[in-house]
Specification:
By secondary structure, this protein is mainly alpha-helical. It has a domain at 34-64. 67% of the residues lie in helices and 0% in strands.
């Protein structure tokens, strides 16, 4: 569910629509806490999902950052 939310946020951000990630921290925190409760084998099976989630979050974060003032504008 979180990966899908981040995919939607990325799509919106790419089109210039404002995106708020408010509340996401709580969901990710809960997911991390639940993962810590897993045994080693179960946690290992969840690892690829958590890595995919982190990559999606990094991508959305990069889209939401304002451009560096010294960066030339992109041209088509």
């Amino acid at each position: 569910m979180l990966v899908a939310m981040l995919d939607v946020a990325a799509s919106l951000a790419r089109t210039g629509v404002g995106v708020s990630l408010e509340g996401l921290e709580d969901r990710v925190g809960m997911l991390c806490a639940q993962t810590l409760d897993l045994g080693p084998d179960a946690a290992a099976s969840v690892r690829p999902i958590l890595l995919r989630l982190r990559n999606r979050l990094d991508g959305v974060t990069a889209l939401l950052k304002p451009p560096d003032p010294g960066t030339p504008p992109l041209t088509a």
